[in-house]
């Protein structure tokens, strides 16, 4: 029995091999010599090894380039701060001057470009701030590169924000998060409206306003109940290194030795310098507004400063009471309950207004513009900001018996002036805009149509009217 099985198995295997050999297209080709096969194998191995080495070298170079790219870009930004600022301003202005590209179908793409430029400016500010800190600790580098870190007299806003940024890393992180939220809020609103409609859009608006309010409350806590400043971080011109002006061409000693010097030509009979003569032989009246070119050496002497420029220079270097104060004391603490309530109400006003607008939109089913014409959210929001302002004035009056105006520091006056002007934006929001401002804008844009150049202005106004009417954050000031 086993021998029979072995015979059948052998016969089956033999038949299969014959069948496969018949089907194979290379079954009758003679096999290559052993030497040629070995050489081909060696060549393939060498080619594969060279390819692997090349890929390894390229990947190493790319990885090194990827590692060095951030540092190289940071060095370029630090060395060319003025050029970078110019490029940022140009791109930012381009998105503003071409509003037609920001509307309807392409609004998200254009707003994305604008948001990217804004976020990139935050990174540039971070790079320049770090470089300014390094240069401040290395006076040798300043002298070698002929760089001055900042203006002779920094602004009060710069001193105050610099103090908190350097003394509290938490303040810097929260302030940066607040700026990022402000720069991206309109883009998030557009995306939410495109993806989820009006319901999702208002949820995102309330969420972003709540996030910004939390950041401001934390900043209020970190600064020990001091009023908030806008912006919460230093401006770029406050810390960006400024390249000093190129020094004048050094005096050529070789040229001076080769040039003959005649005392009688340079000095008169009395031994004093003789002013240049006019064609009539009389002394000419030298202009104090134009540079004077020396006739022998060819060098140009700069004009003397006028009395106005001297006065401006002196006023710029005069120290005031706020200049000698510690940076922490440039804003007074809100020590009373009234002052803290005023600042808290001012911070929570955008959240309350957004919640009221969301509720009104939900009541009317998020459809149409009828809900936008209701005055309740607009009146409550404006009233909260007005009462916060009045409470702050009463707190200042109680602080100083002379009056609230004299109790303010210079930085506080600047901040309250900004808040005062921001009240004008209430004319571009909610019911006031839908019932009053919108009609006036449409009338002004229509009157400009059909007129050369003015027609372009009317088109721009109509394009921006779409943003003001459709998006909450397009008129947000906080």
Tell me about this structure.
- Residues 1-22 form the signal peptide.
- This is Peroxisomal membrane protein PEX16.
- There is one protein chain.
- By secondary structure, this protein is mainly alpha-helical.
- The chain has a domain at 150-242 and 328-475.
- Helix content is 67%, strand content 2%.
- It is built from 18 helices and four strands.
- A two-stranded antiparallel ribbon has the order 1-2. A two-stranded antiparallel sheet has the order 3-4.
- Helix 13 packs antiparallel against helix 14.
- The longest helix is centred in the middle third of the chain and has 54 residues, at 169-222.
- 18% of the residues are buried.
């Amino acid at each position: 029995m086993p021998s029979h099985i072995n015979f059948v198995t052998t016969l089956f295997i033999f038949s299969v091999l014959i069948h496969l050999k018949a089907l194979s297209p290379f079954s009758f080709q003679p096999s290559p010599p052993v030497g040629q096969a070995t050489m081909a194998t060696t060549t393939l191995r060498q080619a594969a090894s060279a390819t692997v080495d090349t890929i390894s070298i390229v990947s190493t170079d790319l990885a090194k380039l990827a590692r060095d790219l951030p540092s190289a870009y940071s060095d370029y930004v630090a060395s060319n701060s003025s050029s970078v600022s110019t490029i940022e301003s140009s791109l930012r202005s381009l998105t503003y001057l071409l509003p037609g590209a920001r509307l309807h179908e392409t609004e998200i793409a254009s707003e994305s470009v604008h948001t990217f430029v804004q976020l990139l400016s935050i990174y540039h500010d971070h790079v320049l701030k770090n470089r300014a800190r390094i240069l401040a600790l290395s006076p040798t580098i300043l002298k070698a590169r002929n760089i001055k870190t900042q203006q002779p007299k920094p602004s009060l806003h710069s001193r105050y924000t610099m103090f908190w940024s350097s003394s509290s890393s938490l303040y810097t992180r929260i302030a940066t998060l607040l700026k990022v939220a402000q720069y991206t809020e309109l883009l998030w609103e557009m995306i939410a409206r495109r993806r989820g409609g009006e319901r999702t859009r208002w949820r995102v608006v309330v969420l972003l306003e709540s996030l910004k309010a939390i950041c401001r409350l934390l900043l209020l806590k970190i600064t020990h109940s001091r009023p908030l400043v806008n912006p919460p971080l230093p401006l770029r011109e406050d810390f960006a290194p400024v390249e000093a002006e190129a020094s004048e061409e050094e005096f050529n000693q070789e040229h001076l030795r080769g040039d003959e010097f005649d005392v009688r030509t340079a000095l008169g009979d009395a031994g004093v310098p003789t002013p240049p003569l006019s064609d009539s032989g009389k002394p000419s009246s030298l202009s104090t507004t134009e540079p004077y070119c020396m006739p022998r050496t060819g060098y140009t002497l700069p004009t003397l400063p006028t009395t106005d420029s001297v006065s401006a220079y002196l006023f710029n270097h005069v120290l005031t009471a706020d200049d000698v104060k510690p940076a922490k004391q440039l804003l007074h603490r809100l020590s009373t309950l009234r002052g803290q309530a005023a600042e808290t109400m001012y911070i929570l006003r955008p959240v309350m207004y957004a919640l009221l607008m969301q509720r009104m939109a939900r009541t009317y089913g998020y459809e149409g513009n009828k809900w936008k014409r209701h005055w309740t959210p607009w009146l409550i929001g404006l009233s909260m900001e007005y009462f916060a302002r009045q409470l702050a004035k009463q707190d200042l009056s109680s602080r100083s018996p002379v009056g609230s105006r004299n109790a303010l520091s210079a930085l506080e006056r600047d901040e309250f002036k900004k808040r005062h002007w921001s009240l004008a934006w209430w004319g571009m929001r909610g019911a006031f805009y839908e019932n009053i401002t919108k009609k006036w804008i449409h009338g002004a844009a229509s009157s400009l149509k059909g007129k050369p150049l003015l027609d372009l202005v009317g088109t721009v106004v109509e394009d921006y009217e779409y943003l003001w009417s459709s998006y909450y954050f397009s008129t947000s000031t906080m």
